[in-house]
Design goal:
166 residues, mainly alpha, Arp2/3 complex 21 kDa subunit ARPC3, 7 helices
Length: 166
């Protein structure tokens, strides 16, 4: 039974990561080419299958998005993937009881807090130029997530209930 649950979780992770790959190919115009719709599947995963799996999807989703964009920030994408994982994990933990706070923290964290290291690594000008696209991208990703979570939660529960009956 335990192996069956591990296999099921791996399947969910693969599905949501594949959705991140699709989202990664939908770019939002930005100074850096890796702002994309790659995080909403991670937000879905964080709420529907757990905060930790959502964080894993977020990290892989960002790395794949950066790969498709040609890794414009080089190894700094590893830092960004970690930041995305933490932000999605927080979103997943808060969503059930505090949707608005979870959404606002994700948007503000992704748009303003996550790029702060780039002030030291690049420049204040780079940070200021990057923030508007990150803000728009974060808002779009959260809105898509908020629209899809209630619609998909029934589907995932139904699939889980069918699995339990077998």
């Amino acid at each position: 039974m335990k192996n069956r649950l591990k296999g099921k979780m791996l399947s969910w992770l693969a599905l949501f990561t594949a959705l991140s790959v699709v989202g990664a190919s939908i770019k939002i115009p930005a100074v850096v080419g890796s702002v994309a719709l790659d995080v909403f599947p991670a937000l879905l995963a964080a709420v529907l299958i757990g905060a930790r799996p959502g964080a894993i999807v977020a990290a892989f989703g960002h790395l794949l998005s950066a790969l498709f964009g040609g890794f414009p920030l080089g190894p700094m994408h590893i830092l960004i993937a970690g930041e995305m994982a933490v932000l999605v994990w927080i979103f997943g933990g808060l969503y059930k009881n505090k949707r608005i706070i979870a959404s606002a923290l994700f948007v503000l964290g992704n748009a303003f807090a996550a790029p702060l290291p780039f002030i030291l690594l690049m420049s204040m000008g780079f940070y200021v130029t990057l923030v508007p696209s990150l803000l728009i991208g974060s808002m779009i990703n959260v809105i898509i997530g908020l629209l899809l979570i209630p619609r998909l939660s029934g589907l995932i529960k139904t699939a889980g209930q069918k699995e339990e009956l077998k």
